[in-house]
Prior knowledge:
The protein has about 130 residues and is mainly beta. Helices cover about 0% and strands about 55% of the residues. The protein contains no helices and eleven strands. The chain has strands at about 1-5, 10-15, 20-25, 30-40, 45-50, 60, 70-75, 80-85, 90-100, 115, 120-125. Strand 5 and strand 6 form a beta hairpin. It is globular, with a radius of gyration of 14 Å. The N and C termini lie far apart (about 40 Å).
Amino acid sequence: QMQLVESGGGSVQAGTSLRLSCAASGRTASITAMSWFRQVPGKERDFVATITFTRGKTYYTESVKGRFTISRDNAKSTVYLQMNSLKPEDTAIYYCAAVIDTTYYNRYRPSDYNYWGQGTQVTVSS
């Protein structure tokens, strides 16, 4: 089993920054990659960014490239999402997710992830 706990959400003005954290506990030695997704009411959960735990490779959705940075601290089994230049369209619930014990997965597909956090709300006002 694994538990993921997000923190760092909040309400901010456009153009400012937030840093989300996701701390994993339990089967952390089995983590292949951790990702951030976001979801607004009535819409699907969308991929934001991912990082592999072995090599630290990162991938981002196009709309956040150059503004968001995902990083990891393997010793703490924690992943961060630094969000700069926030826009109102970044408003969503942000979820942390983990893939374990496999390298065969689609990083963009929520159903390929084994564990999820409870989500943290990010609200960006103009």
